[in-house]
Amino acid sequence: MSGGTVKLSAEKLNVWIGRKKILNDISFECRLGLVGLLGRNGSGKTTLIKAMLNLGCRHEGEVSVEMQKEGGEAVRVRLSGLSGRERARYMAYVPQELHSWAHCTVLDFVVMGRSPYLGWLQNPGKRDYNEAGEVLEALGISFLEQRYMDQISGGERKMAYLARARVQKAAWMLLDEPAAGLDFGRQHQFFEDLTKCLRESRTGAIVSIHDPVLAYTYCDQFLILKDGRMETMLSREDEDFEDMYLLQLERLYGRRAVFADTSEGRTMIWRRT
Ligand SMILES: Nc1ncnc2c1ncn2[C@@H]1O[C@H](COP(=O)(O)OP(=O)(O)OP(=O)(O)O)[C@@H](O)[C@H]1O
């Protein structure tokens, strides 16, 4: 996108699945960078991500992205009025549950991320394939290019989904438990690549994440959901951030953690109960 993204916000989002109300009055405003979405199982993280993408569930409220134009002027784009194709320029999605894609190479899958920029029934061209190839290379998975989506591992498929989201060049990425199922090295590689990509492209991402240590290590802001409501939003820049983070984790999970300074830097440690 030209210019830069500034903020992603939700205003009074209420979401239902069938007759059941899942999310209540969710409002927040995220700045650029990586935003961790935390909450216990069933607290509504996936539902929130899907509602923001207008996928399936009935909802009311507004989601908007604030963009900065080249001249510095800020413009707010309300996403509810946009078609799926237009919306895809503002938001890319990496789902929690991944489909396998028979007879589709990883490269052909990743290049689908260019669809919002192609004409009706227009096939991706050489430039689109080059971009897809570059992203695969940047993620260190070029070796998967000609493999089939249904013949690679779950973790490899997850990386392919991330590559597709990056090729989409949306203002924000919404990633539902992207690190689950990745090995220890790949998990950290994943977050290092993601934070570098966000910095370079001046875009943002929301990731739902269950590991509070991973979240503490890589996220700039933290959206905390509890029983379908926004419990709080924390920022690493808050003066009392560490104390508040520990307090929220204890409230959510009933477990105490501490921060400790080690020769490798500051780290978070769980006390075994
Ligand atoms: N298809 C559905 N029909 C009815 N209720 C549903 C459906 N999908 C989810 N729910 C309910 O909505 C609530 C929120 O679910 P959601 O998947 O958003 O939680 P989550 O925070 O992403 O959970 P997890 O961490 O386990 O992935 C839960 O109470 C869940 O049981």
From TrEMBL:
Residues 8-252 form the ABC transporter domain. CDD domains: ABC_Iron-Siderophores_B12_Hemin (cd03214). One of its GO terms (molecular function) is ATP hydrolysis activity. InterPro entries: AAA+_ATPase, ABC_transporter-like_ATP-bd, P-loop_NTPase. Gene3D superfamilies: P-loop containing nucleotide triphosphate hydrolases. Keywords: ATP-binding, Nucleotide-binding. Pfam families: ABC_tran (PF00005). PANTHER family: ABC TRANSPORTER ATP-BINDING PROTEIN, HEMIN IMPORT ATP-BINDING PROTEIN HMUV. This is Iron complex transport system ATP-binding protein. It comes from Murimonas intestini.
